[in-house]
Structure formats: structure tokens, C-alpha cells
Amino acid sequence: MFSTLSKATLAKAALFQNAPIYVQFYITARCNLTCQQCNIIYANSDVRECTLDEIKKIADNFATMGVAMVLLTGGEPFVRKDLPEIIRAFESRGVHVRMQTNGHATEEQIHAAVEAGGRDISISLDSLWPAAQDAINGGFARSWDEALRCMSTFSRYLPAKGSFASLGCVLQRDNLKYITDVIRFGTEISWFTSLVPVHVTTYDKPMNFRNFDQSLRWKPHEFPYVDAVLDEVRAMRNQGYLIYDSDQYLDDIKRFVRELPTTWRSRNGGVCDSPNLYFAVLPNGNFQPCCDHRLANEYPTYADDFPTIYRQSVFRREVREVTSACSGCMYGSYPEMSISMRFWKAKFERMKLFLTAPPEKRWPVSFETMLETAARIRLEDRPRVELPPPPATHRSSSLAIVQG
Amino acid sequence: MPKKILFESAIHHLTRAAKRRTVVASGEQSTAISTFMQSLSFRHLGKQRLGIEWGGARPGRAELDYRGAELYVRGDNPAAAKKQHDEHLAFNPDTIQQKNQELFDDAIAQLLEWGGVLATGVRCEALSRVEAGGAASDDSAHEIH
């Protein structure tokens, strides 16, 4: 699945922690959903979108720099009419493409994306209950069905070998009870699941991805329930369920929801690894340290001199000023990249997962089978962690495990 | 219920404009801006009009007309790409981003002045003050201590 260029960068990053293995490219801010937990579609609306000519130049630069993987995200990347050309621009230069979608893509679009070289897909799925997912997605009816239809279509067009498919699942109050159902579902249809806790901020500390809705914040009495779900997730992974997240990452989620310092930045002086291992690109092509922060100065990644600028100490210092002031995130990829490259246990887990025992995929999976599988799993009579009502009406501190 | 995309965008750009102010402000001013921002609440008032209310020592209300902002500018289809090339946007500093920033920077500067936080001397034409009775006013004179 990875090119020689990508493998060389991954090896260099594992040895020296200073090679760009992962870039999040926000190719558009436009989206056909307005998910509860997402703010990036608003934060990135003030910049223009790159043209394809500029993106080809970015791909040239990334190949020169040895970028191993670019995540094409948004907004919704499939709203861009030229997505197949964008995928081709990176893949043809040896830069591995991962696509991130909410599942609103037609069969023709999916076919074209795979034909262009897209072999790595992540789809947002937070619940197996259609109404719950539709509500999380901003009240868009049948958006859950669209996601499953999209997954089925990908399972038909992607090659079973040499491809990767995952579900991006946001851990929040509205779906905590159903997280393990999503993982069971993903495993049955040969898709990995990766968790990201909801991120919330306040008006005085705007961060691009983080929501301002304070009602999404975890409350102290809910922490043990989050822990219980994460412990179950960890146990499931040890039993063979397809879960991408490392032990350290899952433990750090527990700390993050409590607003305590996480461990994944500890080997770099309490700062993340941007831009050494990863960074982000705005829709207009400008560099930014990550999805949450921008730099005061503009550095277009399509510029001829960007590969040189990227290595300059002045540039690195400017990024470090921003990252060292950041309280930290748990956005999945950034922590996992740092953990994989800086902690031997996780490094070993990753190698074991992808190099020695890649799980076989039971593809294709029809849309009807997806619907039946989801219905069966969500209705299974099984203990699930359920959040209690707020403390004012709930006086017991014991953990509620309910059936069904 | 789907969120209102332009409304949510305007809120974010206004808060980010305040953050830019905070970065260059002194420690005391920075704290005052932060307190002011935490007191804000927003209302959707219709097409690209943002209702803003603040608390603190000088509470007030205002309306921001952000029709001047150019948001979600496409670059993907041939027509959009041609337009960007014709207007010398492609391969050049993002003037759309700069103009958007100016609008929201001016708006937050004016709000900070009305809120008694900073004497910025900025007058934002897109922002109108709402008097106690509810009518918008262009009276921007306000004493700062």
C-alpha cells in the first residue's frame, strides 16, 4: 500500500523523529453536514480553496520533502469535483493518500477515487442507531444510511489486499453507550475503528477544530463511565477486534476528558511533533501547525521554496512558539504518530498489526448486509455502559451497567 | 437541526480576531479581552447578520452585517479555477483571507471599545450598536476609561 518514498520516510521518522510522515490537507471547508462536534468547516471558511494547479505543486513539494502520507479532508473532500485528480497528483508522486469522508459520495465518485489510486479510506460513524447518527450529524435525515451505503461501495471497489478502511468515531455523551457496538460492527465488515474524544473550547480561546458548545464537555461524574468504555475497548482489541488505537492513546483519552496533561507529548518537552512529524495545510495551501492553530505569517506549501523553508530554523521556531503554548489535543492521528515514533511498545504494536499479521478482509459487503449487521448488533442483549442522569437527580456513585 | 453555516463561521472569525488582538496586547489588556470574550453571546438575525451581546462593566448589544465577508470560495471546478487565475488569486497571497480578517479585526476592535475594554480608535462600518430599545444605531462614540 505504501510507496518506497513513504516507507523510507516512515523508517527515518521512526529513527530520528524528524521526517514528515503525515499531512492533513483541508482541501475544502465546504461540507454537506453540520456535525455537532465539528468546528473546522466554519474555521476554514475564510480562505479560498486552492486550484488543482496549486495542488499539483503542493504534491511536487511533498514528494521532494518525502511526505509519507497526506490525509485529504475538509469539510467533505467529495464535494470537490476534482478529487480524483487531487488523489492522482499525490499518489503518482509516491505520496500515500488517505481520504476522510462523511459518506456522502456517489458510486461514481467512489469508483473514480479508487481508480485514481485512493486505497485508504476513513468514514465517520458514531453510532449504529440511524436517528442518533443523524442527530449527531446536525439533523440530516438518512445521513447514517448514506454512510453505510458509502462503506458498502468502498468495500466493492477497494482491493481486499493493499487497502485500509477505518471508521472515525467521536467519543461523546450522545454515543458513549454505543461505542463498542460500532467497533463490533466495524470488525464484522473488516473495518478498523479509531476513537477521538470530543474537543470543546471557549470564545476567548478559539481553536479551529474545537466546538464552542459547552454542553458537550464531559462532567466529573461521567469520568468513570468514560473510563469503563475505554477499558472495554482495550479489552476488545486484545481479543482481536479491529481497533486502531494504542493502549497509551486510550489511556491519554482518560486524562484528556479530565483536562489533565496527557503523556504522548512527554518525550518532546511537553510539545507535539509539528512540524517534524506532521502538520496541516489550509484550503488555500498555507501551512499551519495542526488543525487547531495557524501561524501569523503565511507559508504557502505550493511555493517553490517551501521545502527549503520547512527545514529552516526560523520557521521551526515560529511553529514551536505556537505549539509550545498549546494545551494539547487528542485528535487521533497526531498523538498516535508521536506515540508510534517515540514509544517502543506502541511501535512494536503497530509493526505487529500491519507487517506481520494484516487481517484478511471479508469484502465486498452489500448495503443490505450492512443494515442487517448493524441492526443485529445494536439490538443484541449485552451489558453496555450507560451514563447516569446528572447528579442533581442521581445520588449513586456506582457504575451503571444496563442490558440492551 | 442543521447549524447555520455562515452564522457559525462569523462567530469563529470574530473570536479568532480577538485572539489576534490578545497576542499583541499587554498582559493586563489580554486578560481584559479574554474576560470580555467569555461574556459574549450570539444570535442569528437573518442573512449574514450577527447579533452580539456582551456583559461586564459596560454591557451592550450590536449587530454585525458581514455580507462583506467572502466565505467558502471555491477552487475546484473549471469556472472557479479560471476566476481565481483571472483575478490573480492562485499562486498569490490570499487576499480573500486578508479582507475577511480586516472585517472581523475591525469588528472586534470596535466591540472592545464599546465594551470599555480597549480604546482602539477603530470604526467598523459593518457594526451597528443596538440601543436599549432594540433599534440599531451608528453612534459609535463611547467613553473609555
| Helix coverage percent of chain A | 40-55%
The number of helices of chain A is 15
Mean pLDDT of chain B: 91
Secondary structure tally, helices of chain B: 4
What's the shape of chain B? globular
Tell me the series of helices and strands of chain B, N- to C-terminal. HHEEEHHEE
Please bin the fraction of helical residues of chain B: 40-55%
Shape of chain A: globular
Largest sheet of chain A: 8 strands, mixed
Q: What's the count of strands of chain B?
A: 5
- How far is the N terminus from the C terminus of chain B? 43 Å
Summary of the model, kept short:
Helix content of chain A is 40%, strand content 12%. Chain A is of the alpha/beta class and 404 residues long.
Describe this structure in words.
The complex is a heterodimer of chains A (404) and B (145). With 404 residues, chain A is of the alpha/beta class. Helix content of chain A is 40%, strand content 12%. Chain A is built from 15 helices and ten strands. Chain A has helices at residues 4-16, 40-43, 52-65, 83-91, 107-115, 130-136, 143-157, 179-188, 223-238, 247-257, 306-311, 313-324, 333-342, 344-356, 367-379, and strands spanning 22-26, 69-73, 96-101, 120-124, 164-171, 192-197, 278-281, 287-288, 383-385, 401-403. Chain A has an eight-stranded mixed sheet, sandwiched between helices. In chain A, strand 7 (278-281) and strand 8 (287-288) form a beta hairpin. In chain A, helix 5 packs parallel to helix 7, helix 9 (223-238) runs antiparallel to helix 10 and helix 13 (333-342) packs across helix 14 (344-356). The mean pLDDT of chain A is 94. Chain B is of the alpha+beta class. Helix content of chain B is 42%, strand content 15%. Chain B is built from four helices and five strands. Chain B has helices at 5-24, 27-38, 78-86, 95-114, and strands spanning 41-44, 49-54, 60-65, 127-130, 136-137. The longest helix of chain B is centred in the first third of the chain and has 20 residues, at 5-24. The termini of chain B are far apart. Chains A and B meet through helix 2 and helix 3 of A and helix 1, helix 2, helix 3 and helix 4 of B.
